Amino acid sequence: MNPSNILRVALALAMLCVAGASAADYPDRPIRLIVPYPPGGGADISARIISQHLAEALGKPVVAENKPGGAANIGTELVAHAAPDGYTLLLASLATSVNVSLFEKLPFNTLKDFEPVSLFVTVPLMVTVNPGVPANSIKELIALAKAKPGTLNYASGGMGTANHVAGELFKYMANVDIAHVPYKGGGPAVSDLVAGHVQIYIGTIGSAREFVTAGRIRALATTGTQRTPIAPDLPTVAESGLPGYEVLAWYGVFAPAGTPKPIVDKLSAELAKILRIPEVRETLKANGNDPIGSTPQEAAAFFRKEVDKWSKVIKASGLKPE
Q1: What's the whole-model pTM score?
Q2: For residue 3, is pLDDT > 70?
Q3: Which residues pair with 95 in a beta bridge?
């Protein structure tokens, strides 16, 4: 065998041995799960469930750290540039796929700098309004927006979030003029909806449900293709006057590119186990989530489809960073 080929084989075997050893020893210290949003929203709910149960499964602390700002890009960049050793993970979301096309320049390459580990959950959103808004259905909300163009506004958890693109898709498909008011997360956004500082919020069911139940905000519809079991009497936007409208938020776990495959596979397997725990599934479903628990390959395929889908929506709507 050619000496150079022998060297390549030796190096490959050495790398395999190191990867195997690192996976066998992993983890031997705390793991950071970076949440690029502030506490209080749907992302934070999923992150707390993941960190608690993953820590129990792995026998080491898993600390969910909120790093909000920059349309989720601040926390995302932190993970993109972290060591690919499995000790710094990202709570990825719909914004991770949207920002690929929304921003012309990012301080990282989303498609190359991450290793999808698992798609954790998908979740339809809920269209809610402040009780002072004289609309009890999507048709009435559209009619109100058309009658008073530029007078209504909608809150979001920041540029590129599910709330944001859901609002922009609504504007585009309904052909209405409503203003976008970005916040640093879903928690602050829904708080200002309750206070009446904004009129509309399309957020996760988990973050808005208690306010709906208390009558402090009004729910009009959900954004999936079918009605959600958690609110079966609530129609979808598509059946309420905007056919074809669909937005699903999602949360998953990504690692930096180059993270050893055995570590990625181990994390994915543990996340899948967590989603088979009855009380975890019940908690997630009670907040409107659909538990998934995919393989890394399935997560990568899903992410690619999301990037393609939202790139078309952004191009068609002419959406630009504000």
Answers
A1: 0.81
A2: no
A3: none
Average pLDDT of the residues of the chain: 90
Among 274, 276, 277, 267, which Cα is nearest to 299's?
267
Q: Which residues, in sequence order, are CB contacts of 143 under 8 Å at separation 6+?
A: 135
Query: Taking 80 as the threshold, does the pLDDT of residue 98 lie above it?
Result: yes
Per residue in 25-50, pLDDT tens? 899 999 999 999 888 777 888 899 99
In the DSSP assignment, the letter for residue 216 is: S
DSSP letter (8 states) at residue 152: -
DSSP 322: -
**What residue type is 310 in one-letter code?**
W
Contacts 24+ apart (CB under 8 A), 264-270: 264/86, 264/115, 264/117, 264/296, 265/23, 265/296, 266/23, 266/26, 267/54, 267/86, 267/89, 267/117, 267/118, 268/117, 268/118, 268/294, 268/295, 268/296, 268/299, 270/54, 270/57, 270/58
Chain-centre distance for alpha carbon 22: 29
The answer to whether 168 and 180 have CB atoms below 8 angstroms apart is yes
Interval 192-214: pLDDT, tens: 999 999 999 999 887 788 899 99
| DSSP secondary structure letters along 57-115 | HHTS-EEEEE---TTTHHHHHHHHTS-SSSSEEEEEEHHHHHHHHH-S--SS-TTTSEE
Structure tokens at 253: 């776990």
- Residue whose C-alpha is closest to residue 273's, from 89, 45, 44, 58: 58
Structural domains of the chain sorted by starting position, each given as residue range(s) with its CATH number in brackets: 30-122+249-317 (3.40.190.150), 124-240 (3.40.190.10)
Chain segment 126-141, per-residue pLDDT in tens: 999 999 999 999 999 9
* Residue 278 to residues 58, 100, 284, Cα–Cα distance (Å): 19, 35, 10
Q: Can you read off the two tokens belonging to residue 25? A: 């020893």
